[in-house]
Design brief:
3 helices, mainly alpha
Amino acid sequence: MATSGSTNFDLDVAEIIEEAYERCGLEVRTGYDTKTARRSMNLMFADWANRGLNLWTVKQGTQALTAKQVQQMKI
């Protein structure tokens, strides 16, 4: 499978809110919609952080590769 090598996928908050509304079959109509959606996101992230589900938590590890897997990565 071909890949671009790009790892910089980055949506801003307004794009995330707009996508969420679209997935619900709605559209953002006013600034108030965006304001309340942003507040809801902040409350959800605060709740997750209080539960220890931090999005920025990183766990380091290693993964051994076979010679075939190394060769596939070079393609």
